[in-house]
Amino acid sequence: MSAAMSAAVLRSEWTKARTVRSTPWLLLATFVVTVGSNVAFAFAVRGSFDRMPPQEQRNFDPVYSGFTGLGFGQIILLAFGVLLVTGEYTSGTIRASLAAVPQRGVFYLAKWLSGTLAAFAVSAVTVFPSFFLAQSALGPHGTTITDDGVLRATVGGCLYMTLVCSFAMGVAAILRSSVSSLIIMIPLFFFVSPMLNNVSALQPVAQFLPDQAGTRMIEVVPDGESVLGPGTGLLVMLAWNAATLLGGYLVLRRRDA
Amino acid sequence: MIHARELTKRYGRATVVDGLSFEVRPGQVTGFLGPNGAGKSTTMRMALGLDRPSAGEILVDGRPCRQLKEPLRTIGALLEAKAFHSGRTARGHLRYLAQSNRIPESRVSEVLRLTGLEAVADKRAGTFSLGMGQRLGIAAALLGDPAIVLLDEPVNGLDPEGVRWIRDLMKKLAAEGRTVFVSSHLMSEMALTAEHLIVIGRGRLLADTSVTRFIEANSRTFVRIRTPEPERMRETLSRAGIPVLTGSDGALEAVGARAAVIGELVSAHGLTVHEVSTQSASLEDAFMEFTAGAVEYRASGEVPVRRQGTEGGA
Q1: Backbone angles phi, psi at A191, to 5 degrees
Q2: Which of A76, A136, B110, B284 fits a 20 to 30 Å CA distance from A114?
């Protein structure tokens, strides 16, 4: 398979993503929800800052606090990743698609790349405005992009969002069903993981869950409980991605369409 | 050219396709006939590289489909209806397929015109009728101008105009020198369009022959005779060397004789008759009789049932 042919398949996958209504809506919703909730939470934090215990005030992380809304935006991007993959199975286009591109690896890589590039672009145009708006909403407690580690944490926010989408594509490729993919991942990201992380007996394990590890990337002030930092958090997140994406590929290769 | 060699597909303990070997040649319509559940769709999916054979192989132009670089340029297929996303337009569906095989955009408009879908090209496919959906499937199959066309139960659920359109199209494609391989569970449909037949039942090859020969070999023609004096009639026919059977309604059935011969016998012997008519068992009957031993059995394993319905089946 030549490079030109692979490029053609990537182009085809992008057309496929672009030509269903859910794509523009979900990407727009990611932007609106993420920016909106980041700013809203930042305002709320600013209002309650003076009532925080001094210990918390000393350890206040303006970047992490300003990115609270990523927790909501990630769910929409996650759904985008899931639908990109499972849409093929629910609609039956998977047979037309694989009859056109029988090399499963090329097909899978092109689909992953088109979804991940779209997620990265949306993350970039969402996370950076989020940062500036949330920091000005934090007012006196905010920080600037030139401060130590702040740019790194903001780029980390883009990577985190992108990797959530990519992880979701891997899970969806394993399960081949939007319902089961979302039923597993949304509670995991929304409740289960934060809950487990707050149970001290489980924290040593829970800190390695994808969102707990991944959000280390957006910290400037270390969390203090997790053994992971921004760099190691990214590595754990990449490992989760590699595992689900490889699983998805093996399912696609082995099973009949 | 499609070439199956000892093609076998098992799902768990069930063998759906069982050692099939056949060739589908260019320049004619080859019918792939069998009752629902005989393994036709599974065979077609294996030809396209969608399902992996458990044993044996099926080759497209001498190679497994998965090895073709841009397969739409070699083989186009209409699988069961609705292999498109209901939210995508007809043009969008064809466009992404075309791009994946580096087929120029102009060809998308061409196949839309060819299938009469121009007016609805930018409507979402979810709003399409069954017939329009089939047309879109055929447009996708023809996208790469392929030398081999696979059609799985293409006339299912179509109105008479659509049925006729597909029949004409298949004949035209074959006349252009393409390999046209079309599955159906209806013998009558095959008799109208196909020149060659591959008949399977329960995954096994039952016949690989021309349509004409299949019909000759399997349809029974007889002359039905109603008479108030059946015993004399029977004796007369027997003496003339014509085998006689008694039909379910009591009428006599003279097998393999022409009505004119019977009429002359009647007149020569002064017999009274109420009816002398030529009957031929319908093609459906011939097909049912032929595949009688090869229909699917119920789970109990006792009562043979022919699966009903118009669905393509797996």
Answers
A1: -115, -55
A2: B110
Using a CB-CB distance cutoff of 8 angstroms, which residues of chain A are in contact with residue B59? none
Judge whether B201 and B35 are in contact, CB under 8 Å. Answer: yes
Residues B60, B72: Cα–Cα separation, whole Å: 12
The mean per-residue pLDDT over the stretch B102-120 comes to 96
CA distances from A93 to A113, A203, B140, B172 (A): 19, 42, 11, 27
Task: Provide φ and ψ at B28, rounded to 5°.
Answer: -150, 160
Locate tokens 């199959």: which residue?
B141
Question: Do residue B66 and residue A22 have CB atoms under 8 angstroms apart?
Answer: no
**CATH architecture of the domain with residue range B2-74+146-217:** 3-Layer(aba) Sandwich (3.40)
What is the rounded CA–CA span in Å between residue A88 and residue A165? 17
In the DSSP assignment, the letter for residue A20 is S
Taking residues A56-74, what's their average pLDDT? 94
Put simply, the chain A residues between 10 and 69 with a CB less than 8 A from any chain B CB are 11-13, 15-16, 19-22
**pLDDT of B305 strictly over 60:** no
What ipTM score was computed for the predicted complex, to two decimals?
A: 0.91
Question: Whole-angstrom Cα distance, residue B134 to residue B311?
Answer: 14
Domain B221-280 fold is Alpha-Beta Plaits (3.30.70)
Domain boundaries, chain B: 2-74+146-217, 221-280
Angle at B112 between CA B106 and CA B114, to 5 degrees: 100
**B14 phi, psi to nearest 5 deg:** -85, 125
* Count of all residues that appear for chain B in the document: 314
Mean predicted confidence (pLDDT) in B122-133: 92
Given an 8 Å threshold on Cβ–Cβ distance, is A100 in contact with B101?
yes
Which residues of chain A lie closer than 8 angstroms to B45, CB-CB? Answer: 95, 256-257
A257–B51 C-beta distance less than 8 A = yes
**CA gap B71, B239 in Å, rounded:** 64
Strands B179-184 and B148-152: parallel
Rounded CA-CA distance A64/A36 in Å is 16
pLDDT at B282: 66
Q: Enumerate the domain spans of chain A.
A: 3-254
Distance CA B92, CA B104 (A): 14
Residue A1 touches partner B, C-beta closer than 8 Å: yes
Region A12-23 average pLDDT: 96
The three-state (H, E, C) secondary structure of chain B, written as one string: CEEEEEEEEEECCEEEEEEEEEEECCCCEEEEECCCCCCHHHHHHHHCCCCCCCEEEEEECCECHHHCCCHHHCEEEECCCCCCCCCCEHHHHHHHHHHHCCCCHHHHHHHHHHCCCHHHCCCEHHHCCHHHHHHHHHHHHHCCCCCEEEEECCCCCCCHHHHHHHHHHHHHHHHCCCEEEEEECCHHHHHHHCCEEEEEECCEEEEEEEHHHHHHHHCCEEEEEECCCHHHHHHHHHHCCCCEEECCCCCEEEECCCHHHHHHHHHHHCCCCCEEEEEECCHHHHHHHHHHHHCCECCCCCCECCCCCCCCCC
Two domains, one topology: B2-74+146-217 and B221-280 = no
